[in-house]
Design a protein that fits this description.
about 375 residues, alpha+beta, 6-stranded antiparallel beta sheet, 11 helices, 6 strands
Length: about 375
């Protein structure tokens, strides 16, 4: 590896880590905060929210790595232009293709990282994320038994628990049932606990009173009891088994699923998902290369590279937009999974075209277009 390659790669790594931390922090925080209310409404502790946030991280990194690679490429190339380091390299006879080589090597590193995340780490993490979500929704007791608050698990029932002890004992219990048709029923008890001796949890009330009020007859009946078992099963929010998806299956298992003769639609979806992950890795390779190719295409320019940076961003957005549109189409028609590779093919064609412009007579045409569209731009 040439000394210039090592120098550019070392500089690129610093920019990449900076943009990776910034973009990851913003996107990760934005996604994680969506689940704060979900955790609190389901009566879970902060540790559950932290675990949900951690399980989101691999999916965020899979999305952020190509963006950070592109931003690092553009920022570094612009700085090398601004400090005339690229001018010195070009003056020493270093070809544009040689200058792009370290960026291609960095793109290969991004490809490996996104490939590992997309094919193995992110699917496993996403599966555990969905498992945790399902478990939180299923733990309806934590949603009902909240100390010192009125809880409304449905439109006709209200729960109140004055105090909850660490040993599971409950105090000052009030349960009110007010159906649309029928009498209102209020259960009160000074003590209680949760009984787990049956498949469905039950609330055991001790030394309490049942008050039944009939609206039509305006009558109130009271019944005292020493102990009463109150069934909590009707308040379960999620008792069904969670259905899986191909997004949470690692690629090695997707290959086996795609090869199954009786896989049906799931088999077709597995094929499309597997190739979609490969396309994301290829885009991660192209991202830093597109950034440097767009800036090098016109050669050195004293007024700076602001216009070329805008062009690079527009080209990267075009590649990503094409990938998103093709993924949506492949999701509707899994048999056409091969169209997914049109996005990296388009990106590769852009890199080749920009590279060819940078070493051919078309460079002057590029300069004239740039001067016409952005006259007098300065750094």
């Amino acid at each position: 590896m040439m000394r210039t390659d090592r120098y550019i790669l070392s500089q690129m790594s610093g920019y990449f880590l900076f943009f990776l931390l910034v973009f990851t922090g913003v996107i990760w925080l934005n996604r994680a905060l969506r689940y704060v209310d979900f955790v609190l409404e389901n009566g879970q502790a902060g540790a559950e929210f932290a675990l949900l946030a951690v399980l989101l991280l691999p999916n965020v990194l899979e999305m952020v790595v190509p963006v950070a690679g592109f931003a690092a490429s553009v920022a570094l190339t612009n700085r090398l232009f601004g400090e005339s380091e690229l001018v010195v390299m070009m003056g020493a006879g270093i070809h544009n293709a040689v200058l792009m080589r370290p960026f291609m090597l960095f793109g290969l590193a991004c490809l490996v990282v996104v490939g590992v995340l997309g094919h193995i780490v992110a699917p496993v993490s996403f599966g555990k994320f969905l498992d945790l979500q399902h478990r939180i929704r299923s733990e309806y007791l934590a949603q009902i038994i909240v100390e010192g608050e009125f809880v409304f698990p449905n439109e006709t029932t209200t729960f109140f628990f004055g105090k909850t002890a660490a040993d599971g004992a409950l105090h000052d219990i009030v349960i009110r049932e007010r159906p649309e048709d029928g009498p209102s029923v209020v259960h009160t008890a000074p003590y209680g606990s949760i009984g787990n001796d049956s498949p469905a949890p039950k609330l055991l009330l001790l030394d309490g009173v049942i008050q039944t009020f009939t609206h039509g007859g305006r009558t109130l009946n009271t019944v005292h009891f020493d102990s009463l078992s109150y069934d909590l099963a009707p308040f379960a929010k999620s008792t069904r088994e969670r259905t899986g998806s191909v997004q949470e299956v690692p690629t090695p298992e997707l290959r086996r699923l795609a090869a199954a003769p009786d896989g049906g639609h799931l088999r077709d979806s597995a094929v499309a998902e597997r190739h979609s992950r490969s396309v994301k890795a290829l885009i991660a390779f192209l991202a830093p290369v597109i950034g440097v190719a767009a800036i090098l295409a016109g050669g050195f320019k004293r007024t700076g590279a602001a216009f070329r940076i805008i062009v690079a961003i527009a080209l990267m957005l075009a590649v990503n937009s094409l990938r998103g549109a093709l993924e949506a189409e492949a999701a509707r028609h899994p048999d056409f999974w091969w169209i997914l590779y049109a996005a990296p093919a388009f990106g590769s064609a852009l890199v080749l075209a920009l590279g060819w412009v940078g070493v051919s007579s078309w460079r002057k045409t590029w300069d004239s277009i740039e001067s016409g569209l952005a006259p007098g731009w300065s750094r």
